[in-house]
Amino acid sequence: MYKIIVLGAGMVGSAIALDLVKDHEVTSADLDIRSLDKITAKNKNISTLQLDVTDKKSLKETLKPFDLVVCAVPGFLGFSTLKSIIEAKKDVVDISFFAENALELNDLAKQNQVTAIVDCGVAPGMGNILLGYHNESLKITDFECLVGGLPAIKKWPFNYKAPFSPTDVIEEYTRPARYIENSKLITKEALSDVELIEFDQVGTLEAFNSDGLRSLIFTMPHIPNMKEKTLRYPGHVEFIQVLKQSGFFEKTEIEIEGQKITPIDFTSKILFKEWLLEENEEEITVMRITIQGTDKDGKEQKIVYNLLDRYNKETQTSSMARTTGYTATAAVNLILKKLFHKKGIFPPELVGKHKVCFDFVLEYLAEREVVYKSIE
């Protein structure tokens, strides 16, 4: 039994802690005492600790007795927190969706003899693992990831609920989207190139450009076409574009009756209530990964993975928390079982390339009824 600390007790962080405590000694740390109380109510075997991760000295001191760290903090805290964890010489699995390039910490991780698996959720995460595995046997020409978390019941006007911070969602809507086309890096505005796509058991969804390729741009430069798109119910993008084009996501302060405020802070407050995924509210995760290329005999291959995951009533766990969190806990066990032990920063595609890791993760997820169905 290992000692693990999970930084962040939000919806996904709590799911991670609840999964790991079955086999390990787990501590959940967060600044918000209410989030910690919720975890304790669900499982008294999880220790809790109020912690401010921005206090680097306190953070490093706190990490000393633990064998491994899971970083599940909001994106804007992610990079600096990950750096502190590495400086504390602790192996780490990270799911924080930060804007910075995690590979910049590779030398630091090697110097400190740390194994860091980053971006290890559903997307980025599982899509990378699938690509990394097939990249070993195919000369891949095309990779496409379509993914989204959606409420089971639509509510006008946005038809959307966020299983994590609205600030992180807005970041996804404002961060320029990068993709690879004909071996060239293309940058477009997020929310661009909207298209309608049919999904079994779900219906029509709209897909739009988002900056989800992340590490793949650097680790898979030989693949000439790679794209990631986010999925929402039809009509969502138009409402977001109205807010975006009207300045509601601006970060420059404005003054109202002597009070200074940034439009994005105001918008986040409003949308937090509108987008808040209520406790036990049902939602789904939809993902389709398409990989095309040729095998060693020059024969064309097309492999499609489909995921449709739903809120689990029995465990009262959201689908996004399951699909994101259990990928992370699978990675935790890869490290603890020494199935993956290289030192440095490793995006999921560099883990999935190893068959033993690929098989372990898929089996681990299937045991938790998160099933990726493949079509070849």
Task: Tell the overall outline.
Answer: globular
Range of strand content? 25-35%
Give the overall pLDDT as a whole number.
95
| Structural class based on helices, strands and sheet pairing | alpha/beta
Which strand order do you get reading across the main beta sheet?
3-2-1-4-5-6-17
Query: CATH H level of the largest domain: which superfamily?
Result: Dihydrodipicolinate Reductase, domain 2
Look up the CATH topology of the largest domain: Dihydrodipicolinate Reductase, domain 2
SS field, number of helical segments: 13
Concise synopsis of the structure shown:
The chain has 13 helices and 18 strands. By secondary structure, the protein is an alpha/beta fold.
Ordered list of secondary-structure elements with their pairings:
Layout: E1 3-7, H1 11-20, E2 25-30, H2 33-42, E3 47-50, H3 56-63, E4 68-71, H4 75-87, E5 91-94, H5 106-111, E6 115-117, H6 126-135, E7 139-151, H7 166-174, E8 177-181, E9 184-188, E10 195-199, E11 203-209, H8 216-219, E12 225-232, H9 236-245, E13 254-256, E14 259-261, H10 263-275, E15 283-294, E16 300-310, H11 319-336, E17 344-346, H12 349-352, H13 355-367, E18 373-375
Parallel strand pairs: 1-2, 1-4, 2-3, 4-5, 5-6, 6-17, 7-12
Antiparallel strand pairs: 7-15, 8-9, 10-11, 11-12, 13-14, 15-16, 16-18
Describe this structure in words.
This protein is of the alpha/beta class and 376 residues long. 34% of the residues lie in helices and 28% in strands. It contains 13 helices and 18 strands. A seven-stranded parallel sheet has the order 3-2-1-4-5-6-17, sandwiched between helices. Strands 10-11-12-7-15-16-18 form a seven-stranded mixed sheet, with helices on one face. The protein has a two-stranded antiparallel ribbon with strand order 8-9. Strand 15 (283-294) and strand 16 form a beta hairpin. Helix 1 (11-20) crosses helix 11 (319-336), helix 3 packs across helix 4 (75-87) and helix 11 (319-336) crosses helix 13 (355-367). The two termini are 40 Å apart. The mean pLDDT is 95.
